[in-house]
Design goal:
The two termini are about 15 Å apart. About 30% of the residues lie in helices and about 35% in strands. A hairpin with a 4-residue loop joins strand 2 and strand 3. The model has no long low-confidence stretch (mean pLDDT about 85). The chain is of the alpha+beta class and about 70 residues long. The longest helix is centred in the N-terminal third of the chain and has 11 residues, at about 15-25. The protein is built from two helices and four strands; from the N terminus they run βαββαβ. It has a four-stranded antiparallel β-sheet with strand order 2-3-1-4, covered by helices on one side.
């Protein structure tokens, strides 16, 4: 498993958090999602043999928010 961190632009409340989480719920290869609208961040724990960071970013962008991967 790997972790990818994303900076969120335009997420301000619990509803925003739910929208972002919904984009990744039930996606193959994703083990855990942690969305924190207070710090504008999303952490995704995933299996890179099933889904890539770029595919995760693409799914997140479908929620109409902008994301930039954070490397840690």
């Amino acid at each position: 498993m790997e972790k990818a961190y994303f900076k969120v632009v335009g997420m301000y409340c619990i509803s925003c958090k739910s929208i972002v989480e919904r984009q990744l719920t039930n996606e193959s290869g994703i083990k855990r999602i942690d969305v924190d609208y207070m710090t504008d961040s999303v952490m995704v724990e995933f299996d890179p043999s099933v889904i890539t960071k770029e595919e995760i970013k693409g799914r997140l962008e479908k929620s109409d928010y902008n994301f930039v991967r954070i490397t840690r």
